[in-house]
Amino acid sequence: MTATNxxxxxxxxxxxxxxxxxxxxxxWLTKQRGTEGPVFGSTDRFEGLGIFxxxxxxxxxxxxxxxxxxxxxxxxxxxDHANDGKANELAGCSARGLRGASVPTKARLTxxxxxxxxxxxxxxxxxEWTNCFEIPKITVPSxxxxxxxxxxxxxxxxxxxxxxxxxxxxxxxxxxxxxxxSSKSKGKVFDPNQGHHSGGWSWFFLKIVFFCILxxxxxxxxxxxxxxxxxxxx
Length: 234
Known about the structure:
This protein is of the alpha+beta class. The protein contains one helix and twelve strands, in the order ββββββββββββα. Strand 8 and strand 9 form a beta hairpin. It is elongated, with a radius of gyration of 27 Å. The longest helix has 39 residues. The strands form two sheets. It has a six-stranded mixed beta sheet, with no helix packed on it. A five-stranded antiparallel beta sheet has the order 6-5-4-2-10, with no helix packed on it. 17% of the residues lie in helices and 36% in strands.
């Protein structure tokens, strides 16, 4: 991917039989091509962005799984396997019901350079997007390879990639904010344009009011001038 601002939407399905299953899948945007490795099936010490859909809890007390998290790799840091990525997490959310959902499960990743990175999930109902996280002021490598991987161990599961769409974005208004009626936010949403839009509309209506007052004043003044001129003739 070479776009400055972009959006990736993927439809996937994590499913299987039995009560025990592992381990999860990952979405990658890295500077190197994907190779087999120990981090959800792909290489460790990667450089770029990894979005992990972790379905098996190893050691994260108080956290509900499946858990979805983001990690920005620098090419040197290893993934914290022992604690399910706790040491590497930029942001994340619990997504109970993501695995084995009765509706198509989707992830929508939106990025605006040096502005924000946002992940929205669909797994509760069709066309109902839940905001997982939004990270302000983040920089992802400008040229990356998009890829997917999955991992199983003693326990197994199915990880299906159904459809992948990617597109360039040219304006932050192209896609609705997760605070819209069709989305449900799990946390604070970063919107760099919120104050700008509010101030712009207020100034627009204020100018209309001033214009109306000016028109009324001009009409009253003209009427008084015309009346006084007629009176001066008699």
